[in-house]
Description:
- The protein contains five helices and seven strands.
- The longest helix is centred in the first third of the chain and has 20 residues, at 6-25.
- The protein has a seven-stranded mixed sheet with strand order 3-2-1-4-5-7-6.
- The protein has helices at residues 6-25, 65-68, 113-122, 140-148, 161-166, and strands spanning 38-42, 57-61, 82-85, 98-104, 124-137, 173-183, 187-196.
- It is of the alpha/beta class.
Amino acid sequence: MHNKPKQQYLQWKQAYWQQFIQSVKKYVPELFSAKKLQILDAGCGPAGIFMILEQHDVTAIDPLLFQYESLPHFDKNNYAEVNFVPSALEDVIAEKKFDLVFCLNAINHVSNIELSFNNLCNNVKPDGYLVLSVDAHRSNFLKKLFQLIPGDILHPHQYSLNEYLQMLPADKWTVLHTETIKRESIFDYVLIVARKK
Length: 197
């Protein structure tokens, strides 16, 4: 898709996010109310969900933001309502808490997953939401093999869905929804929606 002309690519990404957000609609109804939410797009990439959240107060973080500025399809000026912050998830210490934190296809890529996960969780307000998407192993055997012989540089962390869910302790979080978005040969690409107690 990156080979498409700029406008065609951006339209495709916006349509993708609009479809994705329908999976969240039932579980985060505030996102579709008139209320202006404080939202964090953590690990936003150059064409993250921030693209379609113009009615909210959005902070978008990514350690590669400076590099994205050289890409033809990323122009911060097109998103005047978004506060872009060049930061890794490990370094996120927000001055404010968020009603909703998106971390989509990002947590698998961090260096320190425990610290990153804790930072994400700590930045959600009480009664706020965390929406994650992760690559989760289906096979315990293959997961152990990948852990012993690291061969996936882009995904340094190898976990099953249950292991991801255990990172959201039941005394602090209610998992509202899990959904397999896409099934691959080894991983499932899974959506997790949780609410902070």
